[in-house]
Amino acid sequence: MKIFPLCFRGVCLKSLMILLLILSVISPAKLLDSEERTSHNLSSGHRHAVRRIRSEDGDVIDCINIYKQPAFDHPALRNHAIQMAPSVDPSVERTMSTEKSPEMSSAAQLWRRSGSCPIDTVPVRRSKKASGARRFPARKKPTGTSKSSLRSAPTDEGDKVPNLLRVNRSVAILFTYGYNYNAAKGDIRVWNPYVEHDHEWSNSQVALQNGPYHHFESVESGWAVNPSLYGDRQTRFFVYWTVDASKTTGCFDLTCPGFVQTNQEIAIGAAIYPISTPDGLPYQITIYIFKDMITSNFWVQYNGVNVGYWPADLFTSLKLTVETVQWGGEVYSSKVGGGAAATPHTATQMGSGQFPEYMEDVSGWVKRLRVRDNSMTLKEPDWAGTYSDEYRCYNVRYVTDYVEDPEFYYGGPGRGFLCP
């Protein structure tokens, strides 16, 4: 594992140069979009429900015929034949490592305690609106599409590093770039970070991306606390896609057609349970996004279960290759990035709300980081770099020494003594 530790005040200089070209492909803001479109897509699915399950957390799960799910409202998928399973079972894939997986506690979905969906149906969570929340954000709408939107480099002035890449968002990530990837995987510790305002959010994810920053294609999955999308502050499983930097295509979960579900056990957007606590077990979810090399569909695997896929017909460049893989956290708020308009900084947390701390193990982390390239072998990335937009608010730490497997720690409290 090659690491380039040339960093100044938390920002890796070589990594930063690469990031200015490619890292902005993480969409900056999950902003508001057409509620009417979202409502139409989901309500049409409710009419096809063969069973309804009310979860103890208040969610309603509709079990919908697999052939009548919202995905097929997309024009490119009108005649799509469902791929019920990957062409090759991911569980038998080769790996560079022979050691056994560490013993961890996997987080499940709370609604499964209240019932299950029949075979040949898929679980679809009904949307609900937070009290006082803005309209549902269906997609991550970009806040800048030109080089002029990139902010200046960090300076020693003030107590915050300016957001270098995009307006209204702050990331703390590990990334690898420049190879022909087709899959990525990571064990993500599950937390429930504090989100200060309904229109803000915090997530942790794995992302595969390709294309220029102003017109990239991306598939992403992980957990999120997003009040204006989900109507509450629970930690939830999400998927996201776009083919044009979120300008006109793509969205979260099933708020627009595109993602095809194939499994009746996992509901996209459902609450994750239990959640890690500082004095408790380190609950995690394992996210694996991989390209089916026969069909070119991109599958999402959640805790070893194949949930569904984004059909290749949705993409142009991403189905050919993946240039960038990223793991880590992201916060959206108008109060990030420095400057008068962003003061005071948001108190929305990332990860656990604690700065990265390896010894005490109370921060956000991603472990067992893996990529797959044309060798078709799951392995550690040959090169990895770390990056934080605001290291005094949300920081990063990549641990490679004295551990069997590299570990990435990230997160922070947002507003505080170091981040006013």
TrEMBL record:
Pfam families on file: Neprosin, Neprosin_AP
Compositionally biased tracts (Polar residues): 143-152
Signal peptide: 1-31
Region listing for Disordered, in residue ranges: 89-109, 121-158
Alphabetical keyword list: Signal
Coiled-coil region list: none
Ranges where the Neprosin PEP catalytic domain occurs: 163-420
Domain of life: Eukaryota
Biased amino acid composition, Basic residues: 125-142
Name of the featured protein: Neprosin PEP catalytic domain-containing protein
Taxonomic source organism: Trapa natans (Water chestnut)
